Amino acid sequence: MGRLFRGRDKYSDEELDNEEMLEDEEYPEEEEASGEDDSEDEDDPAKEDPDDDEGEDEDDEEDEEDEEDERRAYRHRRRVRNQIIAYSVVFVILAAIVAGGIAAGLRIASSVREKRQAEAQKEMQEQLQAEQEAEAAHEVVIDAPETIEEEEDPLVGLAEAYIADMPLADKVAGLFIVTPEALTGVSTVIQAGEGTQTALNEYAVGGLIYFDQNIKDEEQLKEMLAGTASMSRYPIFLGVDEEGGSVSRVASSSVEVIQVGDMASIGETGDTTQAYETGLTIGSYLKELGFDLDFAPVADVAEAGEGELGDRVFGSDAALVGDMVANVVDGLEGTGVSSCLKHFPGIGDVEGDTHEGRVETTKTLDEMRASDFRPFQAGIDAGADFVMVSHVTASAVDESGVPSSLSKTIVTDVLRNELGFEGIIITDALNMGAITEYYTSEEAAVQAILAGADMLLMPEDFHAAYDGVMSAVADGTITEERIDESLIRIYKVKCEKKLSE
Q1: What is the mean pLDDT of residues 191-198?
Q2: Catalytic residue among 372, 428, 454, 461
Q3: Under 8 Å CB-to-CB from 228, ≥6 apart: which residues?
Q4: Which of 66, 355, 413, 467 is catalytic?
Q5: What integer pLDDT is reported at residue 47 of this predicted model?
Q6: Residues 292, 338: contact at Cβ < 8 Å?
Q7: pTM (predicted TM-score)
Q8: At what angle do helices 218-231 and 194-202 cross, to 10 degrees?
Q9: What does the alpha-carbon distance between residue 157 and residue 490 come to, in Å, rounded to a whole number?
Q10: Of 53, 68, 164, 294, which residue is least crowded by CB atoms under 10 Å?
Q11: Domains along the chain?
Q12: Over the stretch 465-492, which tens digit does the pLDDT of each residue have?
């Protein structure tokens, strides 16, 4: 063991490495060198004892063998160590590669997992969005009427085109419906002649209403109505009171038409089909004769045969009256003749006649909602073009005590806003005692427009009423924009009629 350690000290690592590389090739050189040394020893005279030389040679050979063994053992250990190192390095590299692969695999797996999660989340979001869109689409279908209301009405554009270049004088005249006598100054009008043409040129009224004295026979009536329409610079309403029963201007004349009974009789049957047939029948013969506006049906609630309206009403059951009114409206409007619900807010059970003077109802707004308003709402929903406002004073609704036709509370707040009527609001005849005893023609006309009325029916003095409105616009009491609002409603109906023709 001592030799082994000495041998390791004797040779440097570099030399051993070289030896390890050269291995057995170096050993012959050593033996040759050793031979040369031996020959030199033999020539040396100082060494004369052969026995000593032989002993020394044997010792040298033993030393050389030991050294060779030592070198071989050391080289073996070096090889083993180097192999171990090499294997260790390879193992470390392989371990690093494996670890890197595992890490990369984990990263890839994590990336794939995250990607799948993102895709799943995206799919869930898309599904949720699709469900929300489907729900929103379903809600749009449910709310279709609101969507329709928001769409621009093409009739508004046509109406605006009509009044765009209309002089103020024609705009104001267009708010009036008067008798042909009030327009022309003639005592009785039975034809459309030069007087009618001259009057229409000066006053482009919005409409004319005819009574018994204007109707002689079918041919005369048709010619008069057709001639009047052709003379007007603008579309004009040609109207009549044709309720059926006792109030039938045409059916009571010599013109042969189908006779329609009173509304009380129809109401007693409870058969709404008869109400529809009534509207259809009346509308058909009026349209053929040349009329396009019927001041009917009566939507008041009252006991049939009692009160001022008598048999003109369907009855006292508000729900039944509403069904009857709606069916009459369907029949009339279906023929191209405008219907007019009357007499808002309801005069069925009031005492007194507005033709004679002031008439009051003490009903509260809630009481009216529970009964009187129901037939009007039914008629509005059925598509009535007009609603006529009476002169009854509803003191519990409007404390000012003015007739309903002049009350902003009744006309605008209740009829226009609460009941949602978007058509033409017209006053009852302004020549009735409930108006003329308290207001001049000018005052009544101006106040009715300020209240929200669109058309003024039969003022006591048409020319005075017309001048009063013109003056009110001139001094700013009524704006021209307010006049235009009413004309838009009026011409929407007129344009719709012309389109249907």
Answers
A1: 97
A2: 428
A3: 180, 192, 196, 200, 208, 236, 238
A4: 355
A5: 42
A6: yes
A7: 0.71
A8: 40
A9: 13
A10: 164
A11: 2-139 (no CATH), 152-500 (3.20.20.300)
A12: 999 999 999 999 999 999 999 999 999 9
